[in-house]
Write a structure and sequence with these properties.
Helix content is 33%, strand content 23%. The chain has 359 residues and is an alpha/beta fold. The chain has 2 domains: 60 residues, DNA polymerase, domain 1, CATH 1.10.150.530; 284 residues, Aldolase class I (TIM Barrel). It is elongated, with a radius of gyration of 22 Å. The chain binds S-adenosyl-L-homocysteine.
Amino acid sequence: MKTILFNLTNAELEKFVTDMGQPRFRAKQISEWINRGAPNFSVMKNIPETLRNDLDRVAQTLPVQVIKKLESSDRQTIKFLLELHDSERIECVLMRTSYGNSVCVSSQAGCAMGCKFCASTLLGLKRNLTANEIFAQILVAQWELRTDKFNEKPVHPNGDANNNDVSHIVVMGTGEPLQNTENVIGFMERANQDMGIGWRRITVSTCGIVPGIDRLIEWGRPINLAISLHAPNDELRRKIMPIANKYSIAEIMDAAWRFTNTHNRQLMIEYILLGDAQGNLLNATPECANELVEIVRDKNCMVNLIPWNAVTEREFSSPSGNAVHRFQDILIKNGVHTRIRRERGTDIGSACGQLRISG
Ligand code: SAH
């Protein structure tokens, strides 16, 4: 198996390079390239070609390799299919937005949560990702942003940084981050320290693993928390999310409010609007909207409504625009902050819930 240079310490990289009969300064050059997200050695133009070829035989730069890149028709969203050293596959998504460049990273290969509406969990959990494997997804996006699209030549990293930086991170790709909490925390620490991404620009989304939320409170950084709620009562929630058998909505919301109170942050609540295969509303009825109001009344939160995105293997439907607006109106009339999430990259299967193991 090839050595993944990104996983080596500076001292280890120096040894690796000097063992190949090379001067020590090559290690520094190589590590600069890797920290910019260089996908391979051939882009390292300040390194002799023979050495680049030698390196390519025994090593790879990052712990993830881009297998496929899909760009949405509006060119604002790019989905990367990535392969890990053990051939597991994950996806991450780069979204160019008006407020910056946001990257949606995966925290696990596959997912164990079994939510009925989601593609990520279809093949179960393969394994947790390491902090490095999560961080490398950011580097892939960063490299993309700094690469001149037309001739594939990297733009100088110290050149015009205007809009060429990853500015926001959402841990909302495949997997349940709070089943891999320590590695996700390690990743966030690194994103903050090494890439200067502010805590308030990082969002972790969970289906409601209460001990994981407690761990984030103890960790103490003022990141954003998103709760994938999707139902306003436990009975309905159990039908679509197995995790509801373990933690009640009351327990989850108690932990979530404790988190937001600690940091004085607005809680994000994600709520998919679902119909059944026949087109009857499931969790998107006016009654459900009223029940949801009771959960969030007078709290500091934003309810993101997400009309269900199609997943071929799943038998649900997406409510009509009218039903969506009726649901939202009830929230608004009761003073709840809410918005309908504009889906990005639906045409390349990169919208919420569409990420899976092989794209
Ligand atoms: N496991 C974490 C992280 C995944 S975030 C969590 O549950 O929060 C992905 C978000 O997309 C979650 O809110 C998830 O419930 C939602 N989602 C899953 N399938 C979807 C679909 N088909 N359409 C729209 N949203 C979906």
